[in-house]
Amino acid sequence: MIPFSTPGLQPEQWQHELARAFSDPRELLAFLDLDPADLPAVDFDPANPFPLRVPRYFARLMRRGDPHDPLLAQVLPTLAEHVERVGYVQDPVGDLDAVRENALLQKYHGRALAITTGACAVHCRYCFRRYFPYAEQSSLRHWQAAMKTLATMPDVNELILSGGDPLSLSDRRLATLLDDAARLAQLQRLRLHTRLPVVLPERVTRELCEMLHESRLDVVVVIHANHPNEITPELGCALAQLRRAGAMLLNQAVLLKDINDDADTLVRLSESLFAVGVMPYYLHLLDPVAGAAHFDVDEPHAKTLMTRLCARLPGYLVPKLVREIAGEPNKTPIAP
Ligand SMILES: *Cc1c(COP(=O)(O)O)cnc(C)c1O
Ligand code: SF4
Description:
By secondary structure, this protein is of the alpha/beta class. It contains twelve helices and ten strands. Strand 9 (320-323) and strand 10 form a beta hairpin.
């Protein structure tokens, strides 16, 4: 992961907040009134190549004194990540095979995905891109080359900005990316895959909303929330601004053991998302990335959960359960 910096520019307010993010598990546990002795499996290694990273806003959503808090469990490094499991690998979804040009991935018809940065505001322990070679593939150095390649792909009408998290780029930088994208005549839609509004709602600045509003492209923002406790009034305000800017809002979640693998939690997640103007989109089965096996929910249990969701929610609030299988022409739907 690459640290934040905007050389030669005044940092924006949210960038100050990110600079203050927790990076030491001991500090986070102290903030939550937790005794390290209550959490024997925490990995305190200061040389962790994928270290703790969590903005203070998101830490404030965690329940104090609860070692099993579902938000804490998503971000706290544990020794379980060192357990090797057959089938759990560094590139579980075949991203490296899908690279068309540095930083540009095409797996699916009509859509191309640009890795715009390796930086994220939060480090999710189950992240399937935690080993992605960002330093080589990422980003801005390759952006112009990626745009040239896209210009030769007339059947791509949607560009997805991903990462890392594209909203970890400054507004000024994003404005350039949006302008470049809007100049590609075949593009109709621009999609942002981002967790930043969820972990730091103030990232949704007026400048960001204005540039999305002004773009000729139709904008889709896919946020990433896994648990209803992540849906707050602050997030609601930020999302309302994005909607006012004309963005369609969707959510993708990952099905995670002991975090959201029960029907009550998933029902509440869908209901809370709808209340802030977001439609549930995907519920992903865990990608088998090395070090994340302890988060896996098996397929039979996932299907049972889907049956319960279908019985309890209006159809439009039931996310699609999918698995990403390398080499398939789309994310693979898993029927209940
Ligand atoms: C997930 C993904 C997409 C988007 O797929 P949708 O089904 O359209 O959401 C596009 N490109 C890549 C490389 C992806 O991993
Ligand atoms: S925000 Fe997304 S890309 Fe970043 S660590 Fe979390 S899951 Fe991975």
